[in-house]
Amino acid sequence: MSYSPNNSTEISLDFTTLSTEAIELLPEQIESAVRISNAIQNIDQRWLIYLNSLALFGFVEWVSESAPELSINQAKCSILNPTIANLIPGVCNLEVGDFKICLVAQGSLDDREILLPRVAIELPEFIPHFYVIVDVKEEYEQAIVKGFIRYDRLIQLIAEINLQPNLDWTYSIPSVWIEDRTERLLLYLRCLESTAISLPKISGDRLQNLTSIQAEISSLLNGLESADIPLWQVLTWEQLTAILTLEITGIDDPETEEESALINLDSLLQILTRPALNVGLWLQDKMDDLAQNLSWILMPTFANSPTALRSNTEEFEVIVADLSNFGVEIPSHARGAYQKIKLSGQQFNLYAVIWPFLSEDNVPEWMLLLILTANSSTILPTGLKLRVSDSTGVLVQRKVRPNSFDSYLYIQIAGAWDERFLVTVSLPDRETGKNLSLTLPPFTFRMQ
Predict the structure, then answer these.
(1) I need a surface site. Which of 136, 170, 239, 321 has the fewest CB within 10 A?
(2) Which Pfam families does this chain map to (predicted)?
């Protein structure tokens, strides 16, 4: 914030309103909030997601300082999933002890209305025990926990006045409903049994409902003229609930055509809602902000042969030499980068090599070569998968089979310059056996 004689009066007035209960937001928390918001394609949504991210960091710090004995789990927070964050104007599925919390960044409680996400009121997967309002004063790098309301109390009040949701998937509730004595929230979190606030059970048939309307949703999403159009203007509430169910439940090993169609829908949604990583800049020895934020490391240029490309280890050279035996030839003008990823407690190296070329019809296209290796082992774990999708669905998938002794997985795929590819890495969890997956932002190829 810049200071000048012209705004000194305004600044002094603003400072008189600051609360002594404010939580100071650290520079690294602000940087994390920027990264979270930049993972959203819709520019208009980024500011709200930035504020909600700061609300999350501020609330977690508030609980840690006020009740350090309480455990906090942020892993399931909706705002950490770019696809879901784009659809929910709040932070759902934060866990404090046995309680679920929904956070909403909001101004002063002097405002007559508070906007709560409809998702957190009507969908069991996202309904919390408590809704917490956090006043984020981003210009002062502070957050203040202003108040809360219990789920059971909220539902009672909504029913009493027959309050209806807004078109943009929110509820406008009177601010007088919010309990401003935040010490009572801490008391509940410390002493109340979570079962004292009954939450609705999660329905088991919503995923089946999605299979019947997935083609309709895909058609609507493909018809979007701009990624900046709010999805509430495109999808119905029923379609949104079905999509969110897919994002929460996930399908990694489809056994039916319907399940394969759902994976295709998920890929389409992510391609449309997540900003793309422009690998075309690699040819100019550049990286966009997204690639830098995700810790991609640009590798040196090729000289006269692919073996001239050096990485932090020698494994890339060995793999490239092996791939040449299978007819995979990398031209000298190609460029590559790599990223370290972690999944189910194991670390992997993901290499991406790109180059432009002309098709047989002299149409400009680009090639993407992906190589996945283990970071500390020569053998990949059984069940590890590398998948590439586009807006039409899954294009190629490679999987490590039992007793295969694969040291790497690779996929090579070509596309038009305006085509986006979505890359997913998945691995069965050692403890639960369930597949854990990581989907990277879409890869796209532009020269500027």
Answers:
(1) 321
(2) DUF1822
